[in-house]
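Page 47, continued from p. 46.
Same chain as before, 228 aa.
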Amino acid sequence: MIRTGLLITLVALVIAGAFSWYGWTHTEPGAQIPVHFDLNGEPDRYGSRAEAFLVMPAFLVGLAFLMSLAPMIDPRGENVRRSRPVFLAGWIIGAAALAGAQGFVTWTALAGEPDADTMSRSVTGLLAGIMLVLGVVIAKARPNFFVGIRTPWTLSSDLAWDKTHRWGSRLFLITGLAGAAIAVWGPVPQGTIILMTALVLLVIGLAAYSFWVWKNDPARETLSPEDA
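Result:
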């Protein structure tokens, strides 16, 4: 599992590194480059060449380091290994997002600011794709501290974990399909805002549901005076 993840990171790092090298060698020293954009596709922050072309590769190295350590430092490390599809999906999403972000920054640095409609649809499509992937794999996660829907209640009740992840899988799939439809046919940036709002409400709803299941689970773990 770790070898597969490291290979994924290596591929992403090579891609991001190529984008970074090309951007660095084709921009002037002291250039101010767009590094952050609002939902309308307008740049709202600029940075130096170092920030534009070195931060993403550094994040990729950090991602590999953290994910490699996860099974060893998680108190329920065996469950991390049992959550292999979710673990690797999260690793792939993170690595691909960072490499893609580096490509996007390089493109805007050299080709100019993107069309607002294209930007909004791309962001919406990316979010929808992530939710669809999570919807497919997240129900396979076993209780652990690194991957999955981690609330105080899912981490102290296996029943809450299982039920929350089953519902999470369905809701992520539904929201992802709606997001894909918005990305292709819906109005932007309004559709992007609606999708992000739905995602926030989904997360809040799943947290509340996990509490409800935990509250009604007679086998839940609770803090006793001896534990204090």
